[in-house]
Every structure is written in structure tokens, then in C-alpha cells.
User: Fold this.
Amino acid sequence: MKKLSKKLKLHYISVQRQRNFKDKKKAKKRVSRKLMKKFYYKKNLSDFEKTKIERVNIIKRLYKKKNYNKPLRTVDIVEEFGIENIENKEQISSFLDVAELLVDFNNKKLQINLYDCKRIWPSAITLLCSLMKWVEFKSHTHRKPKVSSNNSKSDKVNSYLTHCGFYDYVNRPHGILISNYYNDNDIIKIKRETCTSDTQIEEKEDELIALLSKYTNYNEEQIEYFDSVILTEVFGNVREHGIAKRDQGWWLLAQYHQTHGIISLCIADNGIGIKNSLLTGPQRLEIKKSVNNAEKNDGDLIKLALNSNVSGALTASTKIQGFLADKYERGARKGNGLNKVKKACLRLQIPFSILSHKGYIFLDKKSNIIECNTRPNRVFAGTLYSFIIPINTNNGS
Assistant:
């Protein structure tokens, strides 16, 4: 093979450099066209389309697959676990400490040690179900972390885990069931809801109304008020914001507790949370003006949703410019739902709580805030609405 002269070599190198430069230039032009097209497309989207895209993006980011790679974590649950019998801030803090360890774990194995647990409440069962849904969303199909629990030395706890439907929910063989501890007629069991149809929700409402009629002092008008305001608003929220995947994204557990004089009602979804709903909705700019450091302030955003007329719904109205001040179009305002729930709970003397990702709020029967704040980690994978409904303590049932 003939050897190339030095001059010819330099010529070929020069030609190749020119080709590379032209190729890079063409590639830059292609990228530039794509970006321009994307920018133009985004620029011409309606507010509804923009907020819908933002909502989809935050769902993708929030439920991005996670590598569970740390060694075994054991979470000890002692005495009572739940928020139904909480009386002070210290007990709230203790519950949330455990909730953080459970929901935001990053370990190959999570062992829930129930040996010294003496009572487990519906709110705790609902939390454990939110944990299971979180794992389903976040883990790779063939690399799921192992989540397990042992039995308690209390037969009452073991029996309740079977009785409330938890073992069915997590697809675990049934544990101990001692029938004289609990009555099936006093509970609406937790299960994976398979649809969001009006019929299925109406069935749950009918079961709850039957429970209230049997055990509370509420008259027909009060029960109707509870149904039309509290249940309608909360079911509307979980149906709209729950993310459908393995099931339809929401679930419910209710239990009559004669000894403590309450009916515990927990309704939850596995959605992006109140904060993320508000900050990806049409009213996000107004909301950010109302709350300092809104991106990291889940608790204050929950408080805002309870006290103000704000909404995270994609169809929520935004302010239009008026002659003297900005205002909402007449009849178009959405976002008063949680405020209605709060007023209804005050009227019916019902303490209630909301846990939503990293934020939480606890209110007493007079709607005074016991505690409201934001945690560094999630305390619930979705949003939980927990109601403590007083019963007729003279009821001999």
C-alpha cells in the first residue's frame, strides 16, 4: 500500500474536520428546531392543558422507581398505634415518628415488630395499607423490598388484623381471629376498591349511615348533613386525586369502639397529596402568594385548604381582571370543600385529622388546631382523612 505524503495527510484531516463541523452544525439545528417546536407548543397550550401536563410530570417524579438498597430496618410498635386515642402533641409526635420510619424507608427488608403492641387502631391499619401501595408504586417489579410483620403477644391485636380486612388487603394468610373480641356488623372492612363508580361509593355511604344510625345520637337531619357534606366532599377528593394502578386509588375503614365511645372513620387515597395538588392546579400562583415557601410547607397548605377558598382541581377557576380588583367569575369558584368539611365537623362535634405526604393537621371537636406542621419525610403515602365520631355511650349494644 502506497504511503501518503505529509501534505496529503493534512488535506484529509482538514476535510474530515470540516465534515465533523458541518455534522455538528446540522445536529444543533435539529435540536434547535425541536426546542422551538416544543416551546411554541407549550406557549399555545390552554391553562387546563398546562396544569394537566404539570400534574402528570409530578406524578412521574413522585412515583419514580426507587432502589431499596439499605440493610434491614426493624420498626418497633409498642403499646397503642394509631391517632384515635391521641390527647396531646407528644403522642402525635410519637405516632408520626413511627409513620416516617415506615413510609419513607429505603431498605431491602422492613420488619414491623408488633410483639409489644397492645392495640392497633383503624388509622394505623390505613397507614400500613398506604405503605404497601407506596412500595407497589416505587419498587421495580423484580426487586421489591420485603415487608413483613410478626404477631403480637396480644391476641386482640392479631385478631383485629384479620377482622379489619388488613391481611386480605396485603394478601397475607389469615392470622388469629377470636370472634368474641369483635363483631363484623360493627366494622366496614378495608379492601382494595375496584372502581370509582357512584354505585360503589353509594354502597359505602349506606354502610356508614347504617353504622351512624345504630350507634350515635345523631337524628336523621344530622346524619343527612354528615352524608351530604363530609362524605360527599371527602369521597369527591379521593376519587379525583387517587391514582389508579393496581386498584382505583382509594380505600376506607370504619370501626365502632364501644369502650372508647367512638366510631373511627378513615378514608384515604394514594394520590400526590394536598400540597402537590394545589401547586399544580390553576390557582397555584395565588396560592404561592398566600403561603411562604409553599414548595416545602405541606402543613400550611393543608391549613390554607381548610380555611380558605382554594382548590387543586384541574377545573378550578382562576381570577379574572376586574375594573377595581381581580375577581372570580360568578358561579365558577371551586375549592370550598375542605372548609365545608371543617364547618360540618364543628357542628357535629367531630375531631378530625388530615395526613398528606409530609404534612399533617389535627383538630379537636371545636375545630381548634392541636398540631399542624410539616415533617422532613412522608408520614402518609397519599392523603388520609380521619374522623372520630362520638357515639351514644348509653347504647347497650
Q: What stands out?
A: The CA atoms of residues 86 and 103 lie 20 Å apart. The longest strand covers residues 380-390. Confidence is low (pLDDT under 50) at residues 320-326, 328-333.
